[in-house]
């Protein structure tokens, strides 16, 4: 099995090296690609200096969705069977990779999402964030009937069929929730596995009150539209 | 000078400006069509107020020129919507271009090293 770990990174110079090494320790067989989304700090150089990862430098910042899709296009061309997306800020544990991959390797699912809320973990966050996640969880269930306890989680593994779909069609900004609905819409099987996550180790979270309102509205609309598009709706 | 004459004059200047912009390639034909349509409709109504007044009476508008405003406003809305559609498409294309460029550069660097 050819396995690719896609690490999107925007200004993560303090954590990127640790993330790469930790992935390399836990899954030595995996190829790693860092998508450096137009960082203004030394994220790109530091990732390259490790020598353990291919680094794609986006010449301009395109946002998380556009950066992730670049990783999926890289995976599609490289002939990878499985791709995992794992954040460059260190909130996802490489140690949990095997758990995330298990449902895919068993052929039970096309996409497996690492969830903070499936079982009780020591993850803590603000009530407003939990409320937002709860809302999207409910919305996904309402729209597609799928169970997703942590729909905003960006820690997920997908198989070849999903790699090809995402290479062609992936949501632009705040893509996580929309991607789940897109997958369900095309008849893919989802699974969840409980993972531990950290609060971000360094850098700054991009969420401000105004942005979270935009986030809620934009994602809700996008989810609704993805649902309305039905089976078709390719670009 | 009444509003119809003023309006007709403005429309003619507007149409001329639009055509000139197309001629100088500052405006692409596919985006200019809506502007030309708007210009012709407004010019038509301004030059033949009887037409405007007849339609106004039919839809119970007392002051006929306000129909002109209404048409202008609605056309402007359609134009703005059209613009945002164009921007969305451009946005998607630019993103795809940036992605492909980044992938190509990565391939090239790797090729150079090997």
Describe it.
The complex is a heterodimer of chains A (235) and B (114). Chain A is an alpha/beta fold. Chain A has helices spanning 16-26, 43-49, 63-77, 97-105, 127-144, 160-168, 176-185, 209-229; strands at residues 3-9, 31-36, 54-57, 82-85, 111-115, 156-159, 190-194. Chain A has one domain: Spore Coat Polysaccharide Biosynthesis Protein SpsA, Chain A. Chain A contains eight helices and seven strands, in the order βαβαβαβαβαβααβα. Chain A has a seven-stranded mixed beta sheet, with helices on both faces. Chain B has 114 residues and is mainly alpha-helical. Helix content of chain B is 87%, strand content 0%. Chain B contains four helices and no strands. The N and C termini of chain B lie far apart (78 Å). The chains are: A alpha/beta (235), B mainly alpha (114).
Instruction: Please state the overall shape of chain B, judged from the principal axes of the Cα atoms.
Output: elongated
**Architecture of chain A in CATH?**
Alpha-Beta Complex
Q: What is the 3D shape of chain A?
A: globular
Overall mean pLDDT of chain B stands at 89
Helix and strand arrangement:
The complex is a heterodimer of chains A (235) and B (114).
Chain A: E1 3-9, H1 16-26, E2 31-36, H2 43-49, E3 54-57, H3 63-77, E4 82-85, H4 97-105, E5 111-115, H5 127-144, E6 156-159, H6 160-168, H7 176-185, E7 190-194, H8 209-229
Parallel strand pairs in A: 1-2, 1-4, 2-3, 5-7
Antiparallel strand pairs in A: 4-6, 5-6
Chain B: H1 3-23, H2 29-47, H3 49-58, H4 65-113
Helix pairs in contact in B: 1-2, 2-3, 2-4
């Amino acid at each position: 099995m050819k396995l690719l770990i896609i690490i999107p990174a925007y200004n993560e110079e303090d954590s990127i090296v640790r993330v790469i090494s930790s992935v390399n320790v836990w899954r030595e067989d995996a190829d790693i690609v860092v998508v450096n989304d137009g960082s203004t700090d030394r994220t790109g150089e530091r990732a390259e200096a490790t020598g353990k990862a291919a680094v794609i430098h986006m010449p301009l910042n395109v946002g998380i969705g556009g950066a992730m899709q670049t990783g999926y296009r890289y995976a599609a061309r490289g002939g990878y069977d499985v791709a995992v997306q794992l954040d460059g800020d260190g909130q996802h544990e490489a140690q949990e990779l095997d758990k995330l991959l298990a449902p895919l390797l068993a052929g039970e699912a096309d996409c497996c999402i690492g969830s903070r809320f499936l079982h009780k973990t020591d993850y803590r966050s603000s009530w407003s964030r939990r409320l937002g996640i709860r809302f999207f969880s409910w919305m996904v269930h309402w729209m597609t009937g799928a169970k997703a306890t942590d729909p905003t989680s960006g820690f997920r593994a997908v198989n070849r069929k999903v790699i090809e779909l995402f290479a062609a069609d992936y949501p632009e900004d705040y893509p996580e929730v929309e991607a789940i609905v897109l997958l369900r819409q095309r008849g893919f099987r989802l699974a969840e596995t409980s993972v531990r996550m950290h609060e971000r180790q360094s850098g700054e979270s991009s969420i401000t009150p105004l942005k979270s309102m935009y986030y809620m509205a934009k994602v809700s609309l996008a989810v609704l539209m993805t649902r309305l598009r039905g089976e078709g709706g390719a670009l | 000078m009444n509003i119809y004459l003023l309006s007709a004059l403005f429309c003619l200047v507007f149409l001329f400006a639009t055509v000139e912009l197309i001629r100088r390639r500052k405006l692409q034909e596919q985006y200019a069509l809506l502007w030309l349509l708007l210009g012709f409709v407004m010019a038509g109504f301004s030059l033949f107020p009887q037409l405007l007044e007849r339609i106004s009476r039919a839809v119970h508008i007392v002051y006929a020129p306000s129909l002109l405003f209404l048409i202008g406003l609605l056309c402007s809305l359609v134009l703005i919507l059209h613009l945002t559609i164009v921007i969305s498409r451009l946005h998607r294309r630019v993103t795809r271009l940036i992605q492909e460029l980044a992938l190509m550069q990565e391939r090239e660097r790797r090729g150079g090293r090997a």
